[in-house]
Amino acid sequence: MTNFIPYGKQTIDQEDIDSVVQTLQSDFLTTGPKIQEFEQSLAKYCDASYCVSVSNGTAALHLASLCLLEKNQKVLTTPNSFLATANSILYVNAKPVFIDIAKDGNIDLDLCEQELQRDSSIKALYAVSFSGNMLNQEKLQHLKETYNIKILEDNAHALGAKFDNIKAGSCANSDVSIFSFHPVKHMTTGEGGAITTNSKELYQKLLLLRGHGMIKTPNMKPWEYEMQELGFNYRITDIQCSLGLSQLKKLGGFIDKRVAIAKEYDKAFHNSIIKPLYTFDGKSSYHLYVVQVDFTKLTISKENLFIKMRKENIGLQLHYIPINKQPYYKSLGYGVEETPIMDKYYEECFSLPIYPTLTHSEQAYIISKLQEILK
Ligand SMILES: Cc1ncc(COP(=O)(O)O)c(C=O)c1O
């Protein structure tokens, strides 16, 4: 029996701790130099022109939505995400339109195109690079150019992912991209998030909205500040950014470990009833490793599998319950969309532990317990 193995967790070393301690001993715990340093490093890592860091990924989505959307506008989005993606559309009184997913768990961009052809009032697409698997950039480019829509890439799962030579967060075919630095993600700042963009105008608006919509310029009186928009306090701290800067240096190694774990799972499940959602093809940075099992062919249910694995100290997780089927969304009239692939996904899929410090023997233990219970 091993210690509990969760589906994901952070990797923190002495260098990270030292970097945070240094900031704690400095003059600035917040609104200091580490914030810009983190933003510049992240923008450079992603090949984006600008980056605004914020208190969490949900705040990033909210600020982006304030910039991209208007009241009552329709926005295509996926049911297969954490609640925050669609919620951010509701925050600004716009209207999510849920589209089915494709076999890899990402929103089906062909179905998005059909919907855009059918309904010219759709103004935007909020698409998630699910599990770390980047959205098809050729299709995104086609949709953006043909239908003149705003595109947000929710890359909370996909830091470090690449589609050909296009990096997640580079916004090559989108207006903005967002990230989350929650501890289960590729790198962490405790809580934290960021928005990248190549538009100076969007960048300036995002900065304004992050800090109460307030400006202070050199020609003002010493005590003066001016509120120009209704903004928020979505600031991240220097303490968090110093952790982020230290983590960013190790991100490449973290991703290599995740990819190695994914390849090991691919190998173990080859030609078995446990089917990887997709096998390694160099595009995913593997925030999640998702497998699919047809439980109708087995005597055990998915619920019992979760319970039995939990008794063996292994944490499985389900990413995600379809957002449109949540009670709140149903109360708004959602949940009736035709999403057969998402429905099947929800019945069959679950996520296995994957994080940089997962050891070879822990992974072998997970694989053997899973195979034993599903036999
Ligand atoms: C796809 C996706 N988008 C947005 C978020 C929100 O990020 P945060 O938890 O940092 O607010 C998450 C968090 O899990 C996520 O998985």
Description:
- The protein has 2 domains: 14-247, Type I PLP-dependent aspartate aminotransferase-like (Major domain) (Aspartate Aminotransferase, domain 2, 3-Layer(aba) Sandwich); 250-374, Aspartate Aminotransferase, domain 1 (Alpha-Beta Complex), CATH 3.90.1150.10.
- 39% of the residues lie in helices and 14% in strands.
- The strands form 4 sheets. Strands 1-9-8-5-4-2-3 form a 7-stranded mixed beta sheet, with helices on both faces. Strands 12-13-14 form a 3-stranded antiparallel beta sheet. It has a two-stranded antiparallel sheet with strand order 6-7.
- The protein has helices at 14-24, 33-46, 57-68, 84-91, 109-118, 137-147, 200-210, 238-268, 302-311, 327-331, 340-348, 360-374; strands spanning 50-54, 74-77, 95-98, 122-128, 150-154, 162-163, 166-167, 176-180, 193-197, 214-215, 226-227, 275-276, 289-292, 349-352.
- The mean pLDDT is 97.
- It is of the alpha/beta class and 375 residues long.
- The chain is globular and about 75 Å long.
- α3 (57-68) packs across α4.
- The structure holds pyridoxal-5'-phosphate (PLP).
- Pyridoxal-5'-phosphate binds at residues 56-58, 81-82, 84-85, 128, 154, 156-157, 180, 182, 193.
pLDDT averaged over residues: 97
Structural class: alpha/beta
**What is the element string, with H for helices and E for strands?**
HHEHEHEHEHEEEEEHEEHEEHHHEH
* Shape call: globular
Helical stretch count? 12
- Which small-molecule ligands are present, each listed once? pyridoxal-5'-phosphate
Major sheet = 7 strands, mixed
Q: Give the count of structural domains.
A: 2
Instruction: Assess the beta-strand content as a share of residues.
Output: 5-15%
What is the CATH class designation of the largest domain? Alpha Beta
- Spans of at least 5 consecutive residues whose pLDDT stays below 50 are none
> What is the CATH architecture descriptor of the largest domain?
3-Layer(aba) Sandwich
Q: What name is given to the CATH topology of the largest domain?
A: Aspartate Aminotransferase, domain 2
Level of helix content? 25-40%
CATH superfamily of the largest domain: Type I PLP-dependent aspartate aminotransferase-like (Major domain)
Give Rg in angstroms.
21 Å
Cα-to-Cα separation, first versus last residue: 20 Å
Order of adjacent strands in the largest pleated sheet: 1-9-8-5-4-2-3
